[in-house]
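Notebook entry, structure prediction.
Reason for the run: the old model in the group folder had no record of what sequence produced it. Starting over properly, with the input documented here first.
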Amino acid sequence: MFGFVTANSAELSKEQKRRYSAVYCGICRCIRSQHTNTARLTLRYDMAFLALLLMSLYEPEEISGGRACALHPIKPRPWVDNEYIRYAADMNVALAYYQCLDDWRDDGSQAAHLMANHLKKQMSRLTEQYPRQCDAMEGGIARLAELENAGCDNPDEPANCFGQLMAQLMVYRQDLWEPYLQQMGFSLGRFIYLADAVADFDRDKRKGRYNPLREEDRSRWDEYLVLAMGRCTENYEKLPLVQDKALLDNILYSGVWTNFGKKKRQEDEG
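New structure, fully documented this time:
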């Protein structure tokens, strides 16, 4: 369900690409140090957006460096580290755990089953450290399963479930910025869910899988996405962001649409 909230690399400057890569590699390093090497396989660029957003909002001190690793053994790659990088790493693992459980339940995926069992060992600390976020993830995924099993044909209901999950994930500190981050996360979660439903609609129909969208509403699907992203960016623009603002703009105003179009073409061609 992820893979949409990433940059349009064709429009990034060389320095922006380096910064984006450093944040991504920083999260990867933290997953290895805070969890396991295997858990790094679940890393998604979407979490780099979360880290960049919180870093831009709170402007923490950063530790930086560069080194080769097992995944990139030839050329040293830059990385950055701070509390928000570490938070994004933890949220990536927690979300991956619940996503694997969902994939295992829906598709019987043995790979997802194995990864869920592996990540389960990490969840005791995460649920203790982040009860609000983990409760939202567990409850949101469970409610989504209920709606899917019931064949819910109102796309707002499952989209809202994922929106509520994302609303809590986006909030690291419960301070004056919490309402904006929650509303932004809620709308972003709705966009992610609906974009995934649109991109997968024809394949889901062929395979007899659940999809909340209706064929007769196809002409309105783009409206759903534009409205969700519009509400997301409305709250995003209320945040006092300076650092990495251009990179964040690229992701929300260009990257999400580029990646949505790419995934939809892949599904159409498949």
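Summary: The longest strand covers residues 63-67.
The old model has been moved to the deprecated folder.
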